[in-house]
């Protein structure tokens, strides 16, 4: 979870630096590539975490992997809010 927070802070910092001089934010190839790489890394972390989690059936894992694969940003947000929350509660109890 801390890696998600650190990477979101980095993304927000990049956007603030790009818009610091009150000009419109134009995301170039390098910034877009960095953001895409961060999203890819977060998706891979979520998929590996999902594969290592216990208490889920194969069908449930496959559905979550497909959601994350076809909707990288939305799937990651859904996984962090819905599916990951339940596994964290199981670890605490």
TrEMBL record:
Q: Which Pfam families match?
A: PLDc_N (PF13396)
The UniProt record lists the keyword Signal: yes
Keywords, alphabetical: Cell membrane, Membrane, Signal, Transmembrane, Transmembrane helix
**A Gene Ontology CC term for this entry?**
plasma membrane
Instruction: Tell me which positions the record assigns to the signal sequence.
Output: 1-20
Does Transmembrane show up as a keyword for this record?
A: yes
For this UniProt entry, what is the primary localization, expressed as one broad class? membrane
Q: How does it sit in the membrane?
A: Multi-pass membrane protein
> The Cardiolipin synthase N-terminal domain covers which part of the protein?
41-79
Transmembrane segment boundaries: 30-50, 62-79
Q: Where in the cell is it found?
A: Cell membrane
Protein's recorded name: Cardiolipin synthase N-terminal domain-containing protein
Which source organism? Answer: Adineta ricciae
């Amino acid at each position: 979870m801390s890696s998600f927070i650190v990477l979101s802070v980095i993304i927000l910092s990049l956007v603030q630096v790009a818009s610091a001089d009150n000009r419109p934010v134009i995301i170039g190839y390098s910034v877009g590539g960095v953001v895409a790489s961060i999203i890819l890394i977060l998706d891979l972390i979520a998929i590996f975490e999902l594969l290592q989690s216990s208490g889920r059936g194969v069908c449930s894992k496959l559905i979550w992997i497909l959601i994350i694969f076809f909707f990288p940003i939305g799937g990651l947000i859904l996984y962090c809010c819905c599916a990951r929350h339940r596994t964290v509660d199981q670890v605490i109890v």
